[in-house]
Every structure is written in structure tokens, then in C-alpha cells.
Amino acid sequence: MLVKQTWLGIGAGILAGALWGLVFLAPELASGFDAMQLSAGRYLVYGLVAALLLAPSWRRVAPRLGRREWRTLFWLALCGNIVYYLFLASAVRAGGVAMASLVIGLLPLAVTLAGRRDRGAVPLRRLLPSLLLGLAGLLCISWESLRAPGQGSLAGLACALGALASWTVYAVANSRTLARLDAVSAHEWSLLTGVMTGAQALLLALPAFLFAERTHAAADWLAFGGLVAAVAVFCSVIGNGLWNYASRALPLSLMGQMIVFETIFAALYGFLWEGRWPTSAESAALVLLVGGVVSCAAVHRTAVKPAAAPRAATPVET
Prior knowledge:
Elements: H1 2-20, H2 26-29, H3 35-54, H4 58-61, H5 67-95, H6 97-104, H7 107-114, H8 124-147, H9 154-180, H10 186-210, H11 218-249, H12 252-258, H13 260-274, H14 280-317
């Protein structure tokens, strides 16, 4: 049963990464709108859709949440969505895409290390091969962009580190909350996070839309609305729901590796969008990243098997 649960969690993590990778195409599809407008629009629609989906079960779910849960939802929405995006956008603007992507690409390593003492974790020495493979893959995927001329700054580096820290805090806190919270399902928790994020996005929407410098035609706004709605539904509602399912099914030391699939699918979508094959360095990066996840999953599989046997024997003993 535990082995099946682990593989279902891995599948959910892969699907979440596949959907999250689509976010990187949004700026290309809506080039006339800035990043803050895309973020505000996405999170407003996310909050609205989450509220509609949660409405039928609201009377059952709401009494199960105390002050601690509401405070947790507030900070998770703030760290995992609003603050993370603002740091990321500022890092790209101040330090360039190459530097920002290299720092943010350390998320799998950061989350895995943060969860090395959590439930189901394996000794760090057994995780070293997968961590080294993932780090080598990230170095390869950043190699060509780092060789290209660009501008960097200490401010950009500080913002990138802030984004790394904020999403690491979100991933760790969200996983630990789901591990102790039995009153609501992973999907309901995702919807609650969406409602909270939508409420916070109202503050982001004010400067994004009211003080925007550019004006747009009605057709542009219609296309923008369709895009942010699609991103909100597929990437936020469905993607976050799958991520929460995986967070409940997998230990943090393995969950951290699942973030790699966002990078992998984002790269694949980028190649399709640009109409080209990956370079040798990019191909090596993809192979190394997948190898790191497979290695980490294999380590956790061997750790789960011994624990499953005593559970199966319990009904016989009683």
C-alpha cells in the first residue's frame, strides 16, 4: 500500500510540474502585458474559481478550521504566491534571467535538504547521488545562458535568494501542514489557499491595473482574460491540487525532487515554442535532472518496503 501511494504521489508531482511549466509560456502569449498584470490576473481568477468550487462544501469545511489553520493559509498564500512572484520578477528585472533562473533552480536541493529530518526521510548520504545529479543538470541548463553577455547586480541576487527562500518556506510548511491536517482533503486545502491568494491579489491588482502605463484594445483584454483564466485553472487550481496530493503522499526529501519537473517541462515547452531541438548542454541537463529524480525515488522505494511488511502482518497477529 505504501509503495502504491508513493508512486501515485510521484505521478501527481510529475503532472503538477507539467502544468506549472505552462506558466513560462504566458509572458510570450501576452507580451503586451507586464508580469505584475499577469500575476494579478492569474491569482484573481484563481481565487474566484477556487471560491466557486469550494462553495458547495463550505459549510462542512469552514467549522473544521481554527485560527491556526487560517493563519497558516494566510502565510502560505503570501509566501508561495504573492511574495515569491514579486521577488522573482524583481530578480529577473535587476539581475537578468540567467542569474535568477540559476538561483531559483536550486529549489529542489533546498527543499530536499529542508525535509531531510521529516517523516519518511532517508539518510542524507543516500540522497547525495540524486542531489549531485540534479545540481549537475542545473549547471548544464544554465551554462549557455551564463556564457552569454548580461547584466547582474547585488540587488538582483538578493531578490533571487528571497524568491528561493520564500518558496522553500512554502513547500516545507505546506507539506508539514498537510501531514498533520486530517480535517480537510488535499484538494480542499488547495482551494482554500486559492481563496486566500485571490483576496491578497486584490492588493496586487490595484497598482497593476489602475496605474498601468500602456492602454489596450478590447480584443487584447479579451485574449488576456482567456489566458489568465486558463493559467489559473490548469496551473493553479489543478496543478496545485496535484501538488498537495503529492505533498501528502510523499516525504519532503522526495517531494523536493518533484519540483525538477517544472524546470524540465518548462524547457520542453520552450523548445516547442522556439521550434528547435535542445542543444547538447540542454539535453545533458534534462537527462541529469531525470536521473536525479529516478535515483531519489529508488532510494525512497527501498526505504518504504521494509516498513510495509509489519503493517501487512498486523491483521494476522490480532
